[in-house]
Amino acid sequence: MNKKTHAGIPYILGLFIVLFAASCSTSSLEDVKTKDDYIKRISSLSDSKLQKTLKADIDSLTSLKEEMDGFNIYIGFGLSMSDGSGKKAEVKPDSAFKINTDFAAIKQDINEYSKRLYFIQTPELPNSKFHVAIDEKLGNISTDDIDVKLKQVYTKGRAYPEDKVGMVKADSATVDFKYEYPKSFETFKFDPKSKKEIAYNKQIIEINSAGDDNVEFDTPLALYKDILSYQALNPSGVLMNASSNSAMPLTTIKGSIKNDLASVLQILKAASKLNNKDAITRELNKIPSSLFPAIAKYHHFNTKYKALEDDKNLKGFDAIKRLKELMEEDKDLFGLEKQRFTLKFPDKIAELILYITREKETIAQSAVAKITQIASPYQTFADNRIDKYGIVDSNYTIVIPASQARLDRADNTGLYYKDYKEKQDFHLDVHNKKLIPIKKGYTYIKDISDHLTLFSDSNKYVGILENDDKVVIPFEYDEIEKTGNVLLLTKSKRGRKKYEIRTLDNKLVNDLKGLKITPYPDYGVLIVENEKEKLGLIDKDGRTVIQPTYVNLKPIDKDLLLYSEGSNSYQKGIMKGDGTKVTEPKFNYINDFQEGFAVYRTDDINSSYGYLNKSGQPVFGKYSVAYGFAGGYALVYDNNVFSLIDTSGKKVKQIPYKTLGDPTISLTGKSTIYEIDGKKYTYAGQPIN
Amino acid sequence: MNKVPFLFVAVFAVLLFGCSSNQKPQFGKAPLHLDNFGLNLDVETFFGDETLFRNNEKYSVKSEEQTIQIDGSDSTLRFVQYTVSSSPVGDTLARFNDFYFGDLNVVMDFDDKETFMVAASKENVPPGKLDALIKEISAEYGNVLPSDKNNEPRYITYEWKKGNKLAKIVLNVENPLSSSNNSEETPNINKLYADAYHKADNISVTFFITNPMFDHYLKKARSISGLLTRY
């Protein structure tokens, strides 16, 4: 559990806008726009009116101060971690919070971080934007908490400051980064129901609400930065993690404005005790001039906010967007001074526990980051000076000048673009450097071939256009997938799916009436299932080559299938794509072929795993457990030893372990990483530090 | 007055009247009448609005192709089950005279031609309303069929038969006979049932109209799902 884990979480289970903006009051002082106007106005009043006006101003500003003190805007996303069953789960003790005290490992991860840094350049005018990141997570540090600043970017050895780079394509960049981590922490416990405010090291925690199992409190930002985590104890002393939590910045009226207001109140009160008009005027001259425009701006914001609140058409994210725009317009008013925590626990809260940093260490370093390219030959760029979008090639040379109000790349070919607002798609004609609008109402989905493209129409039906214009496959399908040399089309009527196979020029090849279909695009074939749950095969040209007669049938390599026949789904064999059997069904398990070998399993008690070649013959040894080949090696386990074997079956490396457990493996060729007993190894068994 | 236009209008009016009086039921337009129901729903018309299955703002209907397998035999029956997966709260989708149902299932043969079953349900039914419903079904279908003493259902169930149609209501109230062996001595099962559901809270009722063939398959099915599990 980390106090920042919820920030940026992409799935939003709850959305709350909490606004406390009391209705605005008006009075004479609040109506005046400048300090000079106010002094002039006061000076023109008779003595009796002057005292009345001062009293009215004190009342009005007191009310305004209360209003501003209570003003906060909180736009938050709640993350619920409940199981969704709605049942009250039994409260099980969670483990106590602890920090990583392997400081050497933290420093090692920071070094690793500096080596793996890369940046993405987003071409923009007048200057590109840069985002520095690393791909992998590091075990001992939270890379999200690293404060990274780009210093300078380079192209072919020439340095550019970030604000002078324009759309020159950078190849590397220097960055400064800073990481702060706790070396020790304190445990701060309190009963949230007992107080409205509680102090920690002279910093006030304000408790807004405390229910049986939930609490909402605000902390100053300085304290928030030091809160590492939170838990609670139930009345039986069981330690609980929060079942839902959010911690969001609280936008308040700037402290300087509130301080000005407090000082003006003091000045007005002092002035009201004076009898002499000149003395009063002198006292009132102490009022800071900056307060008047701030009050005017505050009332202006409140009027706009009221209009937003009354606009019934603005809901959800649109309302938030508009609110953010309003706040941006009057940003001088607002400051971030607090953080709001909203926590819910699985049981009653007897004590809330905050874990707060006591000692911390900061590591500051510089590093060089390399550019990472986007995988598209063309992409959009924004010209922020005119708020328009255009298209550049992979060298950031302009292909289409910035002329579109909105433009988003639709796919990795970089040849299709969308204006989501206008619901208009475009095709990039690279040769003539033109952006060609596609028929209105059609939305680009993907290319099927050089000249055939899959689109959806305004009714969400899909079809295929030739050269973005001529309808080849009519818009009456739910899905169209290219499988092998043909198209698998899915149509539905009253929600019932019907499949058919057609050629690219819309000739019916196979009407799959009543059959269920599973496409295997990697092998270019389809498996069909009839009402008796028997499976058959359709080849890359859409022909039924194996009738639905098998209980198991699955492609495991190009032109090879796993099969089971009769009613015995436990015994599996291998057959060719034309139905010719390569092996009898005598294996319990056969995996997909990887690098020419498929792992199989038999009934043998100890050494049940082995490898089959493409002729279906078992090759080299048998093992207690065997995994697929990756990069010319495969991991096996037998005689209590993990080993890597090569493609001749020779054991080339042993991998040690102390505690036996299932290894974690993602087979991706030479990028494969084996994790055994907490240690990582490359595809060839080299330890990864 | 020229008589030709008058005649034309009159014929047109008669045609219009004729059309409207013979109009086939359409989902969402009006509750489906289950009284004097012919068990011959034309789903082409009833679910004719394709948006019901795609992006209807008010209703959402899903269809599932299913197969019933009979335990210990190769005998199978394929059918299509239409289920209303969402409709406005409090909406009424079907009615038996004045008794309205808020949930509806339609089961058709695989070719969508023959109606195997229509099932409708309602929750929070007061016992008095149930008394009236049972009375009205009995008025159309005749007396309640005697229960199968060798196979008492778990929940209170009433069954009727009329020609080639079976009607059945199942309440979510435990059958007082299912856990005891004294049904032989119970002189009036209907009174026992009525006493039981009159004491119950939050009664939900599911009403089925089906044909004997589908009834047979459902009773022998290896597994079934959805509203059919209440059968």
Q: Summarize model confidence as the mean pLDDT of chain A.
A: 86
- Poorly predicted regions of chain B: 1-21
Biggest interface, CB < 8 A: A-B, 9 and 18 residues
Provide mean pLDDT of chain B, rounded. 84
User: What structural category characterises the helix and strand content of chain A?
Assistant: alpha+beta
The count of strands of chain A amounts to: 49
Query: Are there runs of chain A of 5+ residues with pLDDT below 50, and where?
Result: 1-27, 77-87
Number of helices of chain A: 9
What fraction, in percent, of the residue positions of chain B are helical? 10-25%
Over the alpha carbons, how many angstroms does the gyration radius of chain A reach?
Answer: 34 Å
Principal-axes shape call of chain A: extended
Written as H for each helix and E for each strand, in order along the chain, the element string of chain B is HEHEEEEEEHEEHEH
Query: What is the makeup of the main sheet of chain B?
Result: 7 strands, antiparallel
Distance between the termini of chain A: 26 Å
Structural class of chain B: alpha+beta
Radius of gyration of chain B: 21 Å
Q: Give a quick account of the main beta sheet of chain A: strands, pairing sense, barrel closure.
A: 8 strands, mixed
Strand content of chain A: 35-45%
Give the beta-strand count of chain B: 10
Shape verdict of chain B = globular
In terms of quaternary structure, what is this?
A: heterodimer
